[in-house]
Sequence to fold (143 residues):
Amino acid sequence: MDPTPPPLLAIEYRIGPDADAVRLVRGQVRALLQDHGFAPSKVEAVLLGLDEVVMNACWHGEAARQVEPVEMVVQVHADRLVLEVRDRGAFVARDGHAKEAATLPDDDAESGRGLFLIHATMDEASFSPREGGGTVVRLVKRR
Fold:
């Protein structure tokens, strides 16, 4: 059993694949972090990394086809924030998920910056298959 104390606050979201839903959740997460004393620079870093994960989940997960929304759990702990984003898209195991492999693409590339931004803005990021199919992304940002 994990000796870690339970979170001070935990909230679950179900996010549809539209910009309004993502914007609404982003605003709520911003307010939550500000209300719980996270420094402004940490708030902005979390939001940038979270945007990448949620938009990717909406785009590549089943949410894009209106099949199943993206699920997100936000946990505020005394010393950190934990975010878990779950989708039903196909999980693709890659060595590129590792922080050491997350590099920026060429300047003229239209995509490929997501993993770099996630690892640059978070203290921890892990990617794993979801039970029943899909992907789970777990992000941690320390205070």
Summary: The radius of gyration is 15 Å. Residues 94 and 127 are 9 Å apart (CA to CA). The chain has one domain: 9-142.
